[in-house]
Amino acid sequence: MAGQPADYLEEHLPYEMSMLEHTYRRMHRTDIEPDWNAFMESFCIHARNLKMFVTNDTGVNNSCVIARDFVKFDCKVPSNLTGAFQRINEQIAHLTKRRVVNPTDKFDIDDARNVHGWLIPAMQKFIAALDEDGRKRWDSAAKEKRRLKVASERPTRTGTIRIVTSTSVTTDQIFRIVP
After folding, report:
1. Phi, psi values for residue 140, rounded to 5°
2. What is the full per-residue pLDDT of the chain (179 aa) written as tens digits?
3. How many other C-beta atoms are found inside a 10 Å radius of the C-beta of residue 126?
4. Which of 1, 17, 117, 178 is such that its CA lies 20 to 30 A from the CA of 134?
């Protein structure tokens, strides 16, 4: 693992969870089509990342971080969600030749509701399976009571611009999922 395990329990996984929750909530609060599409697409990417994590899918290059990197953990995608994740791959994550035009064949809000309803308990089970140190690391992000952020710096001709994106979901909200 390039990063330390603590990085995943204290930052990367909580960020994925936070963004999953944020985008899921925002999809339900907008009727502006481009905004809805942006939230849906972001939701799908975070859902796909977390699905790969909890199902121990290491990806094509065998380089993805998985739940078993932390604890003995097995989770399977329910058969009723196989199509939803296939639609994420073909409609959102890749520009495939199998992209559909008919709205009834696309990933939709019902798919999002079902995926969300499966992922949250799956992550709860993962968190519950962590050893004491792992749970402390996971909890440390919640105790900071800050918004989870991704920040980067970009040089410009006149200096450096610090770009910060943040979710509107606090770590207190996201970490309430722990049983």
Report:
1. -60, -35
2. 556 778 889 888 988 998 999 999 999 999 999 999 999 999 999 999 999 999 999 988 888 999 999 999 999 999 999 999 999 988 888 888 888 888 888 999 999 999 999 999 999 999 999 999 999 888 887 666 444 555 445 455 555 544 444 444 454 555 454 43
3. 20
4. 117
Range of the domain at 44: 5-177
What are the C-alpha distances in Å from 86 to residues 2, 23, 32? 29, 20, 26
The pTM assigned to this predicted structure is 0.80
CB atoms within 10 A of CB 123: 22
Q: Which of 16, 9, 15, 50 shows the shortest CA–CA distance to 132?
A: 9
Residue in this structure with the two tokens 């953990």, named with its chain if needed = 73
Helix (H, G, I), strand (E, B) or coil at 163: strand
Structural domains in the chain (count): 1
Instruction: Give burial (CB, 10 Å; 0-12/13-18/19+) of 112.
Output: buried
Q: Are strands 147-155 and 160-170 parallel, antiparallel or unpaired?
A: antiparallel
